[in-house]
Amino acid sequence: MAKQLAAALGYVGLCRGDRVSVQALGPNGRNAPVVRSRAALWKLLKYLDGLQPAANQDPDANVSLHDGVKDFVLRGTSTGVVVLITDLMDKEGYESALRMLIGRQMDVFVLQVLSQEELDPPLRGDRRLIDVEDGDAAEITVNQHVIDRYQETLKSFLHQARQYCAQRSIMHVLVPTDTPIETVMTKYLRSRGVVR
């Protein structure tokens, strides 16, 4: 879903005559193409197609949201529109990363992408959960009480993220991964001013 969103938004930007750069956070962001015309859209798509989660390559290649945004900000010299596609679920928090983007006088949009399994976990029974980003593991027993507490915590997290963004004039949009990309682009993003 994140790749589809990046490709679709990049295409919209190119249709408007904007200069577009799609960058992964971390080491893969350093070789991201800057595209200036629809004829060069293939470069953007090829870059996106080649991106893999860092955990699939080298667990040590993972970067925190803070460090990834810091690297992005230090490499960039221009202001403009930044669309951050993320789940915002970073153990160090998301606040400092968003403050850095605002500090560069950028118009910031956050597309928070969460899977249906994250929004409504189908798990029950004894489980060993492994964080794919850093390998941390936890043994838990999942029952209705645990699911209810998870739902309360998630609801609070999403509310805090929306509130944090709203207070700083950051547009925040929750994007469930089971939503068709056409619906996201035409309904969610257009109604919130991300896409015109």
TrEMBL record:
Q: What is this protein called?
A: DUF58 domain-containing protein
Superkingdom assignment: Bacteria
Which Pfam family, giving just one, matches this sequence? Answer: DUF58
| Originating organism | Rhodopirellula sallentina SM41
Q: Which residues form the DUF58 domain?
A: 2-153
